[in-house]
């Protein structure tokens, strides 16, 4: 998610995001343990990991320095939301989404 008035580069592309959403099934461990700390190090305030295998949303917020992490950063707040739960992005709190709508029907 990129908010209005986000700085852009010479090509007009945003230079920062406030929310990154990953959809994962086979790369879950890599996305969680490698990409997550990199996003935290980049200052991304919120990271959603849509876990298709377990049909849940892993919600990561509040990047903080973490000397134990390979990137030196991690997320302080981690929540697991299940079907039926509701989520609101920090950058757009009025836009809520029921978790069920994030998953394909089976």
TrEMBL record:
Pfam families: Uma2. Signal peptide: none annotated. InterPro entries: Nuclease_put_TT1808, Restrct_endonuc-II-like, Uma2. Residues 14-93 form the Putative restriction endonuclease domain. This is Putative restriction endonuclease domain-containing protein. The lineage of its organism: Bacteria, Pseudomonadati, Nitrospinota/Tectimicrobiota group, Candidatus Tectimicrobiota, Candidatus Entotheonellia.
């Amino acid at each position: 998610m990129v908010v209005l008035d986000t700085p852009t580069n010479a090509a007009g592309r945003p230079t920062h995001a406030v929310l990154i959403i990953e959809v994962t099934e086979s790369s879950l461990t890599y996305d969680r343990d490698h990409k997550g700390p990199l996003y935290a190090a980049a200052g991304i305030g919120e990271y959603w990991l849509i876990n298709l295998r377990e049909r849940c949303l892993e919600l990561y917020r509040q990047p903080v320095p973490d000397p134990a992490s390979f990137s030196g950063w991690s997320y302080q707040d981690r929540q697991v939301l299940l079907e039926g739960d509701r989520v609101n992005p920090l950058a757009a709190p009025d836009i809520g989404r029921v978790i069920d709508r994030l998953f394909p029907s089976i």
